[in-house]
Design goal:
- This protein is an alpha/beta fold and 258 residues long.
- Helix content is 40%, strand content 22%.
- It folds into 2 domains: 1-91 and 241-258, Nucleotidyltransferase, domain 5 (2-Layer Sandwich); 93-236, 2-Layer Sandwich (Nucleotidyltransferase, domain 5).
- The protein contains 8 helices and 10 strands.
- The strands form 2 sheets. It has a 5-stranded mixed sheet.
- Helix 2 (79-90) packs across helix 8 (243-257), helix 3 (130-140) packs parallel to helix 5 (165-177) and helix 6 packs across helix 7 (220-230).
């Protein structure tokens, strides 16, 4: 059986092709204003990598905030469920998911079978998300993909008091003017993000293993801060942005097999 999952996030569109139990191809592309077109491009690229055509697909499931605008999908499923399915496929031992995307963040606790026990979602504020880090990278004049490596070189502890994107940017500018090292400021930002996520996770079952997904999972500084704060082993997939799309493809197989 060959199925596809399409995940339309706030900044990117992702697609995964699942052939039986194996990932045959995937794509991650910028979303853009036309969500439907982005979904088509992502699916097309994933199919091309898999050496397949859309006609070869048994079923397609869409997820993410733009899931209702994916006309080729036969069904839509929430990203919470899809994150759980994708995570259990990748890391069956994971008891918690931390998904930090472009403009929202989610904390999801799982049982031993990968079913959702509880979740907390922040989609009203960009604090700690990819957009937040993009603003901080500009303020610090550092490339986005260098935030993690640079922050790991920190020597001093700098406390960032605000997680509001606007106020945090002003605070960072002030710290630069006061002569604080960029790596110390970055570490402070990453610790602030970890503190916010820990607050979201409060009351949920953490477990011994946490899967971190979403684009921010590529930031090694954030991952290290989360591991330190939550006192658990943190695992990051090779491509952390496709977890929900993978879960959607798994959901598509489950729907066919019912």
């Amino acid at each position: 059986m060959i199925t596809a999952g399409v995940d339309i996030g706030s900044l990117t569109a992702k697609a995964v092709i699942l052939r039986d139990k194996e990932i045959a191809g995937y794509a991650v592309i910028p979303g853009g204003a036309d969500v439907t077109a982005a979904a088509g491009r992502a699916l097309g690229q994933a199919l091309e990598k898999a050496g397949l055509r859309q006609e070869d697909l048994t079923a397609i499931v869409a997820t993410g905030y733009g899931r209702e605008k994916v006309p080729m999908a036969g069904k839509t499923v929430t990203e919470i469920t899809c994150d759980a399915r994708g995570t259990h496929y990748l890391f069956p031992e994971a008891g918690m998911i931390i998904d930090i995307g472009g403009q929202d963040s989610k904390v999801i606790s799982l049982d031993a079978e990968g079913r959702v026990l509880d979740f907390t979602m922040n989609d009203k504020c960009a604090a700690g998300t990819g957009r937040f880090l993009e603003v901080m990278a500009r303020a610090l004049e550092i490339e986005l993909d260098q935030l993690g490596p640079v922050s790991l070189k920190h020597r001093k502890t700098v406390v960032i008091s605000s997680m509001c994107t606007v106020f945090a940017e002003s605070e960072v500018v002030s710290l630069i003017a006061e002569g604080y090292a960029r790596e110390d400021i970055l570490n402070g930002l990453h610790q602030a993000i970890a503190s916010r996520i820990a607050a979201m996770a409060q009351g949920q079952r953490v477990g011994k293993v946490i899967m971190v997904g979403g684009g921010v999972a590529k930031n090694t500084g954030v991952v290290k801060a989360l591991e330190d704060r939550l006192k658990a082993k943190v695992k990051v997939p090779p491509e952390p942005q496709i977890v929900a799309a993978l879960g959607a493809a798994i959901c598509a197989q489950e729907i066919v097999n019912r």
